From TrEMBL, chain A:
Binding partners and assembly: V-ATPase is a heteromultimeric enzyme made up of two complexes: the ATP-hydrolytic V1 complex and the proton translocation V0 complex.
UniProt keyword annotations, A-Z: Hydrogen ion transport, Ion transport, Transport
GO terms for cellular component: plasma membrane; proton-transporting V-type ATPase, V1 domain
Taxonomic path: Eukaryota, Metazoa, Chordata, Craniata, Vertebrata
Gene Ontology molecular function, alphabetical: proton-transporting ATPase activity, rotational mechanism
Function: Subunit of the V1 complex of vacuolar(H+)-ATPase (V-ATPase), a multisubunit enzyme composed of a peripheral complex (V1) that hydrolyzes ATP and a membrane integral complex (V0) that translocates protons. V-ATPase is responsible for acidifying and maintaining the pH of intracellular compartments and in some cell types, is targeted to the plasma membrane, where it is responsible for acidifying the extracellular environment.
Signal peptide (from-to): none
Annotated protein name in UniProt: V-type proton ATPase subunit F
Domain of life: Eukaryota
Keyword Ion transport: yes
UniProtKB/TrEMBL annotation, chain B:
Protein's organism: Oryzias melastigma
Locations listed in the record: Cytoplasmic vesicle, COPI-coated vesicle; Endoplasmic reticulum-Golgi intermediate compartment; Endosome; Lysosome
UniProt GO cellular component terms: COPI-coated vesicle; endoplasmic reticulum-Golgi intermediate compartment; endosome; lysosome
Subunit structure: Accessory component of the multisubunit proton-transporting vacuolar (V)-ATPase protein pump.
Region listing for Disordered, in residue ranges: 95-153
The protein's name: Vacuolar ATPase assembly protein VMA22
Lineage: Eukaryota, Metazoa, Chordata, Craniata, Vertebrata
Entries under Pfam families matching the protein: Vma22_CCDC115 (PF21730)
Length: 119, 239
């Protein structure tokens, strides 16, 4: 565990980002891009996808937290990410509770068994 | 003898399957806790917004410069799993940093001793170097002071000097959420790698039983097999 630690990135609505920034994960200075994106009603899917891909491309981000309803908008990009680092965690939002059946990781694990196994 | 050769891979597969189930159960528990902590945090933010005003708790209050107070360390294991550990930076108190700055500052004349009018070139160049170093030091002190004024500031201060208790509760909830996020990330990695191992074991099991063929059917009644092995046997019999 030597060396500088990695950052935690957030893609979420205003309250989610505010909460995690209060927790102390935020990085923003003149030289580097921020490690968070506040998604509002007028934020385009393209911008969300580009931000997600930019977080994946950075080697200083260890975990990406994303509201599940935003993850649904870029599901193809999240399913395409199979590396362990950065880890992608889907979290609920105020208006959309967490649904385990939509989670990319659990869907991969769910494919392990089929209904025939339990006959 | 043939039976013991067959039992070992099956026992291993059973152990992996049990581990997989345990990981899924633990992941679900941690997720439930994480989600409830996040909801607590939102509720506290809403209460703080109600008391402070709509625009006082929003993205408008974010600082233009931020440094992370928490980071995550990763460690890859041999079996493909990745462990995640969070580390929170301990911030210095403002009084300590100001005391350190005072001790660094030079008070009084920079030059010691009497001034000499007749100076050699070497002395003048050395003196210029030391003066330059001292001015650099002064510059460093000033820039360090500026940095220390806003290096790793508590994010609560973005919202004012006296913040309501709900906002502090929200910060506490989200700090716990960050800790849980690292644990869940590690569990997710373990679930995915265990699933891969099981998949490979199943594929190996199918290949080995194809070569043994009828021997497996005679020695292993289906009632003693696990669910996955029954599936393999049914595939072999159908083929």
């Amino acid at each position: 565990m030597a060396g500088r630690g990695k950052l935690i990135a957030v893609i979420g609505d205003e309250d989610t980002c505010t909460g995690f920034l209060l927790g102390g994960i935020g990085e923003l200075n003149k030289n580097r891009k921020p490690n968070f994106l506040v998604v509002e009603k007028d934020t385009s899917v393209t911008e969300i996808e580009e931000t997600f891909k930019s977080f994946l491309a950075r080697n200083d981000i260890g975990i990406i937290l994303i509201n599940q309803f935003i993850a649904e908008m870029i599901r193809h990009a999240i399913d395409a990410h199979v590396q362990s680092i950065p880890a992608v965690l889907e979290i609920p939002s105020k208006e959309h509770p967490y649904d385990a059946s939509k989670d990319s990781i659990l869907r991969r694990a769910k494919g392990m068994f089929s209904a025939e196994d339990f006959r | 003898m043939g039976g013991s050769e067959l039992e070992d891979p099956r026992v291993k597969m059973d152990e992996k399957l049990l581990r997989f189930m345990d990981l899924l159960e633990l992941l679900e528990k941690k997720r439930t806790t994480l989600n409830s902590l996040i909801e607590q945090g939102w509720f506290s933010i809403t209460k703080a917004r109600y008391s402070m005003g709509n625009k006082q708790v929003s993205a408008l209050q974010y600082s233009s410069e931020m440094e992370p107070l928490v980071c995550v360390h990763t460690r890859a294991l041999e079996n493909g799993e990745v462990q995640f550990f969070t580390e929170r930076n301990k911030k210095k108190s403002s009084t300590e940093s100001s005391d350190e700055l005072l001790s660094v500052e030079d008070i009084g004349p920079q030059e010691e001793g009497l001034r000499r009018r007749n100076k050699t070139k070497k002395e003048t160049t050395e003196k210029k170097d030391t003066e330059g170093a001292k001015t650099d030091k002064g510059f460093e002190v000033n820039s360090a002071r500026k940095r220390d004024q806003n290096p790793q500031q508590d994010p609560l201060k973005w919202f004012g000097i006296l913040v309501p208790q709900p906002l502090k509760q929200a910060q506490s909830s989200f700090k716990q959420v960050i800790e849980f996020s690292a644990e869940i990330a590690a569990l997710q990695s373990a679930v995915v790698s265990t699933r891969q191992e099981l998949k490979l074991s199943l594929a190996k099991g199918l290949n080995s039983e194809d070569t043994l063929g009828n021997t497996v059917k005679e020695k292993c009644p289906t009632d003693e097999l696990t669910v996955s092995e029954q599936k393999e046997c049914s595939k072999i019999t159908s083929s």
